[in-house]
Amino acid sequence: MKQKKILAALLAAFFIMLFPVNADASMTVGILKDNAPYSTFYRKKARGLEPEIARKLTNDSVSFKAYDTRRKLEAALKKRQIQIAFGSIDALNVNQDVFDVSEPYLYEPNILFRRHDGKRKTLEKLANKPVGMLTDGNQTQLLKNLLLKPRYFKNIKAMDKALAEGKIHAAILSDYEYSNYLKDHPEHVKAADATNDEQTADLFVKISDPAITSSQFVAVTYKNEELLKKINSAISSMHDDGTLQELSQKYLGKDISLQ
Question: How large is the average pLDDT for residues 204-232?
Answer without folding.
Answer: 95
